[in-house]
Amino acid sequence: MSVSPPADYRLSHLDALEAESIFIMREVAAELDRPVLLFSGGKDSMVMLRLAQKAFAPARIPFPVMHVDTGHNFPEVLEFRDSRIAELNLQLVVASVPEALQVGLVREPADGMRNRIQTPVLLAAVEKYRFDALFGGARRDEEKARAKERVFSFRDEFGQWDPRHQRPELWNLYNGRHHAGESIRVFPLSNWTELDVWHYVAREALALPSIYYAHEREVVDRDGMLYAVGEFLRPRDGEVARSARVRYRTVGDATCTAAVRSEADSVEAVIAEIAASRFTERGATRGDDRVSDAAMEDRKREGYF
To answer: pLDDT tens-digit profile of 194-221?
Structure first.
């Protein structure tokens, strides 16, 4: 009588990351009352959306998605965001910076970069809709402040983060306890890397905005970074706009998100390019992170994601 060999239950690296993220999402749905998923239409948002689909299938995703809109968006990304939301029949909440400027909640920064004034707009939306858990696509490989933040990141009634008083997460046990007005920022992709995200995009055949792939675009070289010339950013005195073949590693406010020179016009080519890169996506492309060495941590302390 032959005996069948025991089944091999070892998970691949991507399967293990996926399982961890799905577990985190289910924990939030079980512990918290009013979660929301931050969705910009970017690659991390798309991965989060796919994970949420898998976490709660065959049911619908049981929470809305929210975009904090600076008004300085790449049109390709907004078009993609709207088409994806419509396809999945999700509720989209837009926290609008332009509307906040109109009512006087925030003031236009002198440098024109609106990333910092996103924070009051985000906090106002959290208060208005009484969200107590906000899913974000931040990863620890992106930036040093994000590297030391917990998966469940407690925020006080002012939305502020104190890195010196974070809750332990031994054995993947997450503490979502909070008082009224407080909230938890949740990062299911904490242990993923940019390369993991792209491998997952390839495996799941996820569609992404076209600007993630190499294309011709008019850019200016500013402080060693290539910014797209357009409605929200014009060449300064002495700057010369040139056409270059570029792509974006991350998407955000067009005034502070730079492109990189690239010939990678497919998922496979992007994966090969990232594998050889020696710079993180934010380090290579985000002007707002260059304000100071602690720029991201300062914004997080104020309530930013």
So the answer is: 999 999 999 999 999 999 999 999 999 9
| C-alpha–C-alpha distance, residues 36 and 132, integer Å | 8
Which distant-in-sequence residues (6+ apart) come within 8 Å of 6 by Cβ?
A: none
Q: Closest Cα to residue 305, out of 77, 67, 75, 96?
A: 67
Domains located in the chain, CATH noted: 13-195+295-302 (3.40.50.620), 209-290 (no CATH)
Nearest CA-CA partner of 106 in 71, 147, 78 = 71
Contact 63, 36 (CB under 8 A): yes
| Structure-token pair, residue 98 | 């332009």
Cβ neighbors of 46 (< 8 A, separation 6 or more) are: 84, 201, 206, 207, 208
Cβ(133)–Cβ(30) below 8 Å: no
- Written as one letter, the residue type at 211 is I
Cα(92)–Cα(202) distance, integer angstroms: 26
Give ∠ CA 262-268-274 in degrees, rounded to 5: 55
Locate 35 and state its tokens.
């979660």
What is the pLDDT, as a whole number, of residue 5? Answer: 66
Structure tokens at 214: 């190499």
Tokens of 299: 């914004």
Q: What is the pLDDT of residue 6?
A: 65
Q: CA-CA distance, 146 to 125, in Å (whole number)?
A: 23
The DSSP element (H or E) to which 275 belongs, if any, is helix 267-276
Whole-structure pTM value: 0.89
User: Is residue 202 helix, strand or coil?
Assistant: helix
- Which residues, 6 or more positions from 239, have their beta carbon under 8 angstroms from its beta carbon? 220, 221, 222
Distances (CA, A) of 158 to 57, 180, 211, 267: 34, 11, 35, 40
Split at pLDDT 50, 70, 90, the class of 295 is low
Tokens of 119: 């924070």
